[in-house]
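Lab notebook, bench 4. The sequencing result for the construct came back, and we need a structural model before the next group meeting so we can plan mutations. Quick request posted to the team channel:

Model the 3D structure of this chain.
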Amino acid sequence: MITVKVHAEGAVIDNDLPLERISDVLATENALVWVDAQHASAEELDLLRAEFSLHPLALEDATVRHERPKFEEFDGFLLIIFYAFTFEVERAVITIHQVSIFAGRNYILTLHDSDMPVLDDVSTRWCHAHAHIKTPAAALLVYSIVDSLVDQYLPIIDQLSERIDAIEDAIFARFDADTLQQIFRLKRDLLLMRKVLTPERDVLNALMRRDTPIYDQETARYFQDIYDHLLRVLDSVDTFRDLLTSALESHLSMLSNRMNKIMKTLTGWSIILMGMTLVASIYGMNFVHMPELRWQLGYLYALGLMAAIGIGLGYLFKRIDWL
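Done. Here's the predicted structure in token form:
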């Protein structure tokens, strides 16, 4: 599905522009074209490449799935590859969605395969805000898109924080195999997020750098704000990974302590039974010349001796916290 919006003189003048006429509109002054393509076919991509005069390598990078977030300058346009995250609360799984942004002097082209409600929200806000902007502002539209993508990270960070708190509570309450799986699943998702967020930080750094400015200084300040938000998200991801590592270490430590306690208990009972068995073994021998065999109270003596050994060892092991 492809949607085309043409903004001019503070209003949306066309929502149904044919793709074949995009190049004609781009040649006019004071017009901004935003084309959003979802699941574009090969024929539609070829048409968009011709209308926007895109470099074939740039279009190839934009359509490759799971491409590394990047920023590249081409002749007449920029290519920005960013990602959106979704968090499935029930399964506690994070999914990434690639968004490729082509930005020219007076146009924006966004390519993506999955449904992106965040882009619809940006379009709605942009239609209202653009009424106050009399000249094409592709840079501000790029900022709006990237800012909205980064803002979507913050609720996911809050949900992850709540999930980790629940896992920490489960460790000390009733730690089971499911909790252990949740830890490893979240660690994997956080690693995936970090692999995406780290190059995205470099992308924003390139957009706001001062040595080779891409946009004017005023627009660069807006990207600085996104950069600060992204750093906060990245710091949270690193903190969560440390918390999960600590939770896993705590679980292993508790498991080791529990195993040690079990081993001490089993060892204590084994020694008690060994002491009692020793008496039974000695008096269970059937040698002829054993004086105790003819004792009238020999049976009671043997039972009393075994009881005394068991009680004595039990009292000792109880004092040293082995039982």
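The CA atoms of residues 125 and 144 lie 9 Å apart.
Will bring this to the meeting.
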